[in-house]
Amino acid sequence: MKRRIVCFGDSNTWGYDAKTMGRFPEGVRWTSLLAERLGEEFQIVEEGLPGRTSVVDDPLFEGLNGYTYLHPCLMSHAPIELVVIMLGTNDTKERFNLTAYNIAQGITRLSLKAKDTTAGIKGQSPNVLVIAPPPIGKEYYEVVGKSMGKECDRKSEKLPEYLKELLEIQNIEFLNTNRLVPMNTVDYMHLDEKGHKLLASLVYEKMKSFLQEEK
Length: 215
What we know:
Blueprint: E1 3-9, H1 11-14, E2 16-17, E3 22-23, H2 30-38, E4 42-48, H3 66-77, E5 82-86, H4 100-116, E6 127-132, H5 140-148, H6 152-169, E7 173-176, H7 193-207
Parallel strand pairs: 1-4, 1-5, 5-6, 6-7
Antiparallel strand pairs: 2-3
């Protein structure tokens, strides 16, 4: 049986291409690049959904609350060696009225829910890695400001600091992509081809500690 890794995220895990408003193909998405690096021994499950939040219901669109979907999602893919969670960009939307600290609290709550499942190897808890997505560029407002609202860039810039603090308390692994992976220069809130490649490399290096041979 292949060693399974679930990548649970939003449009940047799904692979949204802001230039075409479509989806990047395999070989471009960071999840598929990660799969190439890991090799045939592993299976990457792409659980990306555009618009997904960590713990809040969106009044405008159905089914985007990651918290209510996470448990059945993980159990359906069991056994899982590792759950990689990258959320937070959509939580910055003005209509949710969340602070950066609130968003970090929600992502931490979601990661604890992942650990509380029995979706891991032999019914154990799966390993969890939380990624802070790259901050939204301040120019986003000129492109998608009507939809996103104000202050999204500032919230996303502060998010990694609070996430690191809260996840350390819970002993959950954390990867901060700030200053390491850029957003695109189209809508300033999605990865471009270069961003996907950089993210795949960072995640692979960070994941090595999770991927030791089972004893």
